[in-house]
Amino acid sequence: MKALFAVALGSLCLSGCLGYHIGPVKPYYLRDVHTLAVPTFENQTLLPRIEVLVTNTVIKQFQQDGTFKIVGDADADATLKAEIMRIDRSPARSVRGNVLATTEFTLAMHVKYSLIGRDGKTIAGPAQALGTTSFFVGTDVTTDERQALPLATEQLATQLVSQVSEGW
């Protein structure tokens, strides 16, 4: 009798964990997508060679996330097509006593993307992701902006990958 009670008590305790999963939990519409191709993003901005930085950062974020395996176009279940739409720089803080001089800028990078299936149909998207950062200005605004781009790109990659892998 005690053994039967112990078994019943043990199964009752463990039944609370029946709905939980360990590992990545993809949205239902991506249930058949296990591998993903990420070709170089298109660059619609006037900033040269930024597309390689953004694409590589997104690939590294997908690898860190682990939900999808990154492969070439021929082996992929889906392809992430993306465009860097624009990069905005706006003043965030001005010099005391001189509102025309800026000491801090906000940098925002906008990307539009879609997930295309092996059959050419759109699985998800079009959607947008945004990466922002702020940077202080020394003597050269262009150099300071160029140094802030990787930070905005990392935030953009984190947002894009979480949108794709979690379905929001």
Describe the structure using short key phrases:
six-stranded mixed β-sheet; alpha/beta; 6 strands; flat; 168 residues; Double Stranded RNA Binding Domain
The largest pleated sheet is described as:
6 strands, mixed
Q: Got a strand count?
A: 6
Secondary-structure element pattern, one letter each: HEEHEEEEH
What is the 3D shape? flat
- Looking at how many chains there are and whether they match, the oligomeric state comes to single chain
Unreliable residue stretches? none
Classify the fold: give the CATH topology: Double Stranded RNA Binding Domain
N→C terminal distance: 51 Å
Helix share of residues? 25-40%
The pLDDT mean sits at 80
For the record, the CATH architecture stands as 2-Layer Sandwich
Give a description of the structure.
The protein is an alpha/beta fold. It has a single domain (25-166), classed as Lipoprotein like domain (Double Stranded RNA Binding Domain). It contains three helices and six strands; from the N terminus they run αββαββββα. It has helices at 2-14, 50-65, 141-166; strands at residues 35-37, 42-43, 69-70, 78-95, 98-117, 122-136. Strands 1, 2, 3, 4, 5 and 6 form a six-stranded mixed sheet that branches. Helix 2 packs parallel to helix 3. The N and C termini lie far apart (51 Å). The model has no long low-confidence stretch (mean pLDDT 80).
Produce the secondary structure layout.
Blueprint: H1 2-14, E1 35-37, E2 42-43, H2 50-65, E3 69-70, E4 78-95, E5 98-117, E6 122-136, H3 141-166
Parallel strand pairs: 1-3, 1-4, 2-4
Antiparallel strand pairs: 4-5, 5-6
Helix pairs in contact: 2-3
